[in-house]
Design a protein that fits this description.
The chain is about 25% helix and about 25% strand. By secondary structure, the chain is α/β, with parallel strands linked by helices. The chain has one domain (about 1-180, about 215-250): 3-Layer(aba) Sandwich (Stationary-phase Survival Protein Sure Homolog, Chain: A). The strands form two sheets. It has a nine-stranded mixed beta sheet, sandwiched between helices. Helix 1 (about 15-25) crosses helix 4 and helix 2 (about 70-80) runs parallel beside helix 3 (about 105-115).
Length: about 260
C-alpha cells in the first residue's frame, strides 16, 4: 500500500513526524509531500496566480510552495504519477479540527483533495484544549489501529474521514466515538490591532471564548470528554429542507 502524507503545518512540523511514524506502521511505501511553510486556515485554496516550486529532501520527501491542496495535486499528478497513492493521510494537525473548523482547515482540505482525485483520505488532528505541551504519543499510539479498522471496513468514495484525538495522554483516552459535525455555541474570532516600530498598523486574528456545551453525538462532545472522534465528512453542502422549501416557492409563481 502506497501512502501519501501531507499537512497544513508545513514540511518541518512536529505533527508530520507523528504522521509519518503512523504511516510506516501501516506500510513501507510512505511518501511525504507537504507545503514549504504553515498553511493553517488555507481551506481548499489552490495556487492559480503564481508558479509552484518543489523542494526535494530525499527521494520520498518533498515540499511545495503552496497549499495542502497544491501538495496533494502535485504529488498525484507529478511526483507519484507512475503509481498513485492508495491512501492519503493529512495531519497530524497541531490543534483540533472540529465543528466549523472543517470549512477552513487546510488539514481537512488536503484529505478532500485526495478524495476528489479518487484516493481514500483521512484527516488527523490532535486537540490542544489546555494549551500545554502537545501529546503526540496519543495519535501515535491509537491511530494505526483505527486506520486499519477503517481500511478493512471501507467508506464511500465521496467521504473523508476526520479523526480528532483528545488532549489527553494515550492511557487516558476514554474510547472512540463515531460522531457528526458539531456547532460551537461560544466561539469568537477577533482582530487585534498593533503598531510596528515605524508607526504603521498591523493586525492579528485571535480566538477567545470558553468551551461550548455540545450535545452527545457530536465531535466536540467526544473530544471534550476525552474520546477519539471519528466523523465522516462530505462536500455536499446543499441544505435540503431549504432547497425543498424554495423549490415550492419558486414553483408556485415565484418568477416576479
Amino acid at each position: 500500500m502506497r501512502i501519501l502524507c501531507t499537512n497544513d503545518d508545513g514540511i518541518h512540523a512536529r505533527g508530520l513526524e507523528s504522521l509519518v511514524y503512523i504511516a510506516r506502521l501501516l506500510s513501507d511505501d510512505v511518501w511525504v509531500v507537504a507545503p514549504h511553510e504553515e498553511q493553517s486556515g488555507a481551506a481548499r485554496a489552490l495556487t492559480l496566480a503564481n508558479p509552484i516550486r518543489i523542494r526535494e529532501y530525499d527521494p520520498r520527501r518533498f515540499s511545495v510552495s503552496g497549499t495542502p491542496s497544491d501538495a496533494v495535486m502535485m504529488a498525484t499528478q507529478k511526483l507519484l504519477a507512475d503509481k498513485p497513492a492508495d491512501l492519503v493521510l493529512s495531519g497530524v494537525n497541531n490543534g483540533q479540527n472540529l465543528a466549523e473548523d472543517v470549512t477552513v482547515s487546510g488539514t481537512i482540505a488536503g484529505a478532500f483533495q485526495g478524495m476528489s482525485l479518487g484516493i481514500p483520505s483521512i484527516a488527523l488532528s490532535l486537540a490542544r484544549l489546555n494549551r500545554d505541551k502537545a501529546r503526540w504519543a496519543t495519535p501515535e499510539r491509537h491511530a494505526p489501529g483505527i486506520i486499519r479498522k477503517l481500511l478493512e471496513a471501507g467508506w464511500p468514495k465521496d467521504v473523508v474521514i476526520n479523526i480528532n484525538f483528545p488532549d489527553t495522554d494515550p492511557d487516558a483516552v476514554a474510547g472512540v466515538a463515531v460522531t457528526r459535525q458539531g456547532h460551537r455555541d461560544d466561539f469568537k474570532l477577533f482582530i487585534e490591532e498593533r503598531q510596528d516600530l515605524r508607526g504603521g498598523k498591523y493586525y492579528w486574528y485571535g480566538y477567545e471564548g470558553t468551551l461550548s456545551n455540545p450535545p452527545e453525538g457530536v465531535d466536540l462532545r467526544a473530544v471534550y470528554d476525552g474520546r477519539i472522534s471519528i466523523t465522516p465528512l462530505h462536500l455536499a453542502l446543499t441544505h435540503e429542507d431549504s432547497r425543498a422549501r424554495l423549490a415550492r416557492i419558486f414553483g408556485e409563481g415565484g418568477n416576479g
